């Protein structure tokens, strides 16, 4: 997915509604700033009250929340839903999910925006987030993040056809990697605090068959799985890539019974099956680097050995990210219909994550229901943690829901994240176009490497 990037600094821009509105706004903003106060006492009191109020709900046991009151990570800001449920007749309402962020405390990113006490279990008492690589002029870190445990490296693709992607119908995008050993060393050298560091980004030299990579997962039998959008007449494809030099490649699929796909977007392996599930969508056309689409936007299943191929879900506006629960029984697919490339954004169209049951026999996705609708931008790449909390790259960073679909909190970047990946337990690597963020938290990883 190649979203139009929300304007920088568009922090909860208030409605322009005259002098009365202005007065009301500043009072409201003052109240929220108080909630964000760095006074440990204030935070502890507010969380204690929160724990009391939520103890009768279906959330975590009160003891855990009570313990969390003594251990809020320094970069966390609590935004109790009760503090903004009523904005008032002249309240600071948002007009746009694409150009205005929801940041009522006006906190400077990056930070953890906490809506529910359970988010503190994910962050842990000492969670941190910082930028670890940045290039303001090049969207080098867009999607396809894959962690390779053997070398402790994360691979990813640059933006294909969108803002600052340096790629178009005449120029391929690039796949690169960073070393998390180098990240750890840079953080150690930087000492205390969460100031950004800037590790080296190494571009891979890949064969011509790999065009406009947009999705990735694995490792699968030790290889990266890349899904590629294609470029011009060069076909979209699903490919295995050796993560080590010479990065030799095996293309697994590049057509549907002779027709080229539209522009393949994202991919996951369904746990327990070794089968690849991937999305196809019209963004290559909508970003001027692919011809007119020939197929509906839909989700496919490929058996990499027999090459048996079938459609498992359709009926989307623009299907995009995909993920499975750890038992493989639930599938999640994001629909980014609200972003239509050169046709523009339309916030009355989907920015929605759907959940499905995976039929045990056919593996078709059934019983479609809304899992979450996102408040900022669109939900793009999807990942889960070991507790089946769902993480999505969104217009303001990474948003996290529990398995019931309640928004727990955000890794608030103030800019678009299109995808993210756990690098083993307690380490989250977040793609943010012109930067990569690294969060050291308490949550454990979902399994992505197979068999
Ligand atoms: C909370 O703290 C108490 C007292 O330190 C401890 O006994 C208990 O195990 C803690 N509970 C959790 C869930 O961490
Ligand atoms: C990080 O280093 C790269 C070169 O490796 C450079 O292009 C980039 O501008 C640096 N980023 C920052 C924020 O200094
Ligand atoms: C890369 O080449 C090696 C050696 O020929 C081969 O064993 C391996 O399967 C290749 N990997 C891919 C992804 O093509
Ligand atoms: C946005 O989408 C709605 C629903 O499809 C449509 O009625 C409306 O015309 C669209 N608006 C724009 C500006 O394209």
Describe the structure.
It holds the Pfam family SGL. The chain is an alpha+beta fold. The protein has two domains: 29-70, no CATH class; 128-440, 6 Propeller (Neuraminidase), CATH 2.120.10.30. 13% of the residues lie in helices and 31% in strands. It has helices at residues 18-35, 40-54, 62-68, 119-123, 180-190, 283-286, and strands at residues 76-78, 111-114, 128-134, 143-148, 153-157, 175-179, 202-203, 213-220, 223-228, 237-241, 249-253, 264-270, 275-280, 298-302, 309-313, 319-324, 330-335, 352-358, 365-373, 382-384, 390-394, 397-401, 407-412, 419-422, 427-431, 435-440. Strand 4 and strand 5 form a beta hairpin. Helix 2 runs antiparallel to helix 3. The radius of gyration is 21 Å and the shape is globular. The chain starts with 17 loop residues before the first helix and ends in an 11-residue tail after the last strand. Mean pLDDT is 89; it is low at 1-45 and 51-63. The site of one 2-acetamido-2-deoxy-beta-D-glucopyranose has 3 residues, from helix 3.
